[in-house]
Amino acid sequence: MTDADARARTVLERCDALAQLTEEPGRLTRRFATPALRAAGERVEGWMREAGLQTRRDAVGNLIGRRGDAALLLGSHLDTVRDAGRYDGMLGVLVAIAAAERAPRPVEVVAFADEEGTRYGTAYLGSAALAGRFDPAWLERRDADGVAMADALREFGGDPEAIGSARRDGLLAYVEVHIEQGPVLEDRDVPVGVVEAIAGQTRAQVTFAGAAGHAGTVPMEMRRDALVAAAEWIVAVEARATGGLVATVGEASVAPGASNVVPGRVVLSLDVRHGEDAVRETACAELRERAEAIGAARRVDVVWEEVQATPTVTCSPDLTASLAAAVTAAGHPLVTLISGAGHDAAMMAEVAPVAMLFVRCAGGVSHDPAESVEVQDVAAAIDVLDRFLSTVLYRVPIRDPGQEGRSE
Ligand code: GLV
Ligand code: MN
Ligand code: MN
Fold first, then answer.
1. Which structural domain, as residue segments, surrounds residue 251?
2. Nearest CA to ligand 1 atom 5
3. CA nearest 355: which of 7, 91, 92?
4. Measuring CA to CA, which of 1, 100, 211, 288 is 20 to 30 A from 167?
5. Ligand 1 lined by 341 (C-beta under 6 Å)
């Protein structure tokens, strides 16, 4: 086994270990500010220390390890969707630690506490805090059990009143490794690819409020069935998603939720993405009008709440060129991609030049327990990151404190 393979195997064994730290027995679910996330953070903190990094947590619960006076940040996230795969987020954190251990210059690794938004509907809570884009109003949001974000964060050891202190200025770069979550690299038969841009996304919560009633006694023409209105709109959402626009209703709650009761209230999530912000914004406006029209025709009230909107982000041309040079130097054909998935790099672009490296994953499957990567591809990603960390120094002026390898 080569040294690169051994490092990659360690990364994959660590992904396996983290997959056991879950909120739900038998499947991986690890949401923001939960005991499972705390447990994962503790394991990762141990590995950071073994790699010579000095660790701390910031006010929003991100875990940060640094060696020296670093201005070069590597990282990804430790939270997951429900019934997740074991590599989305975690692979990037663990590859970053592997590279940081050998990096020729000071480097910092961040394990973000929330990228998916599974618990509160708001994506990027961790990186939004670093980017100075954390909206304090989010702290009032409640999860499905009614727990306010501020209370969950306090319980987790964070400090909702001090989120502003997590902001990071003066970073020279943020670099993220992530599984591709799509089929392009597999199709092109390459282990890694370089990301040029990350598509923008809008998340909304759409409520249809009609009137509950007895399923046996309320005549059909007198009903104000919230679920039928919602269903008509969901089909309209699918029909609107053409020309590269993707739109998803991934969550639905029906109240009161009994087989013999006309549904009185339905709350849906909506996720809309496109590489051009204007296209996404126009589509969202049209989908809102459509929901209101369907509601008016069915005497169902519609409330539209935009939860979050993030623009399309272009990766730094300089850093991306360095990353591409590292891919080529490692002997791989250069494949560039636009990411349809959201990533912490999209938020970090607010305060730093960003670059991203994708790793091939089997069948392009992600957000699913069947997520899978090959050890050789992970070895290739570590190799590329090693090379990047050596050469990037010649492209951007990373500060050298002369205290290499020492914790301050
Ligand atoms: C995160 O995985 C997202 O793209 O929603
Ligand atoms: Mn994800
Ligand atoms: Mn991710």
1. 200-310
2. 342
3. 92
4. 100
5. yes
Number of folded domains that form the chain: 2
Which of 233-247, 264-278, 378-392 is predicted with the least confidence, judged by mean pLDDT? 378-392
pLDDT above 50 (res 32): yes
- Cα 79 from Cα 114, distance rounded (Å): 5
| Ligand 1 neighbourhood includes 342 CB (under 6 angstroms) | yes
Please give the single-letter amino acid code of residue 177: V
383 Cα to the center of ligand 2, angstroms: 24
User: Residues near 344 by Cβ (< 8 Å), separated by ≥ 6?
Assistant: 75, 76, 77, 112, 115, 124, 126, 127, 174, 176
Q: What is the predicted pLDDT for the residue at 105?
A: 87
Ligand 1, from 79, 343, 365: best to mutate by most atoms within 8 Å of Cβ?
343
**pLDDT tens track for 107-135:** 999 999 999 999 999 999 999 999 999 99
Helix (H, G, I), strand (E, B) or coil at 348: helix
Predicted TM-score of the model (pTM):
0.90
Residue 316 pLDDT: 95
| Ligand 1 atom with least separation from CA of 341 | 4
Q: Do 35 and 107 share a domain, yes or no?
A: yes
In a domain, 399, yes or no: no
Cα–Cα distance measured from residue 274 to residue 311, given in angstroms and rounded to the nearest whole number = 9
Q: Is the dihedral of CA 275, 128, 89, 25 positive or negative?
A: negative
Spell out which residues have Cβ within 5 A of ligand 2, the ion. Answer: 88
CA distance 349 to 355: 9
What local confidence, expressed as pLDDT, does residue 392 receive?
A: 64
- State the CATH number of the domain containing residue 61: 3.40.630.10
How many CB atoms within 10 Å of residue 206? Answer: 23
262 CA from centroid of ligand 2 (Å) = 35
| Residue 172 half-sphere exposure toward CB, CA atoms < 13 A | 19
- Averaged over 172-191, what is the pLDDT? 97
Give yes or no for a contact between 83 and 26, defined as CB atoms under 8 angstroms apart: no
8-state DSSP, 61:
-
